[in-house]
Amino acid sequence: MRLTKELDGSTLIYCQSPGSVRRVAQVMVDRQVTPAEPALADVVDWVGRNFHPDWIVARALANGIGVHHGRLPRALAQLQVRLFNSGALRFPVCTSTLIEGVNTAAKHVVIYDNKISKKPFDYFTYRNIQGRSGRMFRHFVGTVHLFHAPPEADLPDVDFPAFSQTDAATDGLLVQLDEADLGGEGLRRVNKLKRQPDLSIETIRANAHVDPQQQIDLARHIRLHARELHPALSWRGEPSNDQIYKVCDLLFDTLLASAGRDVVRNGRQLALLLTQLRQLGASGLIRAQAQALGPRAPADPSDRVENVLDFLRNWASFHFPRALTALERIQAEVFGRLGLPAGSYAPFAVRVENLMLPPALAALDEYGLPLQLVARLEQILPASNDLDAVLAALRRLDTSRLRLSRFETDLIKEIQATL
Known about the structure:
The chain is mainly α. The chain is built from 20 helices and 7 strands.
């Protein structure tokens, strides 16, 4: 912390993970590295009301310190980048999410960790982080401070599994290649997949993101338990809560086996969060989970907030819809062979992926409009899948007619100026 007090000007602090970011930001707040920042009071108040007042992001912002990592909503992350570049924030504590492809007005860079997640970064990544100092035509000379020795200046070996077709080439990769491009071992592995009787190679290829053996095992399981599973899997459009539970229980240890277990620990918890998302929407789920108390809820408000944000960002918007789409193809083939009507999950998968908002409204998070504010404007903006129509309506929006806070009004006007 002595270094942060000595450095003059804007300083970016790199950490390996969201957990490391939180620890560093917490120490900076506790040690009062920077004084309270009254100019950010409206932002801090909004974050506290819409997430939790004791979330580390709110506490750090109150002291002129930004927090930036992959669990944050995109709009909140973008807001902090703008605040930093404008000089309102002196320190952003960040992971590689602020290193890759984002220009910042940092005079100094402090490399606190020498890893990305749990893996030591290579020389190329180190130089990329180092290059964040002295940028944006504002600081022509910057400094870099390391807490570890820099990596060796060597070039990593690069393997292209599609060409080498060694053991590093997965069955999922090989099955996507034309037979003319397969070597002897690759062709043998693909032919083995073609000869198995449980699932067609066409379905396996369509589910390109899923391990072929996982698909085959699941197809066999559905066929062997068709009478029991058919009522739970034959829904079309919108499932009942019980069907969501059955699907999540089936997927969790099969097509979702490779997803992390830090936030969602079992199929029942996944189903509960999905049903709450359907009932409350994303903003309501954030509030409910952030305020949750009880023996199973984390005691630290930052854990509660970031757990639900991780669920929305990774599970709801990515892991679950992708697995559900793969399951749709698998059960359609299995039940079709058995002469049973198949389920159709696409509408629900799209709704979950877009956090129960029309796709064009969900996309406004990418434009800097927080989902909590999107939810409040949902009845005003067109419920359309046409993003251009939604952006045009947002551009014309008269904020003086709305009951918004000063921060929300200023934020919308800032976004309107960029459209």
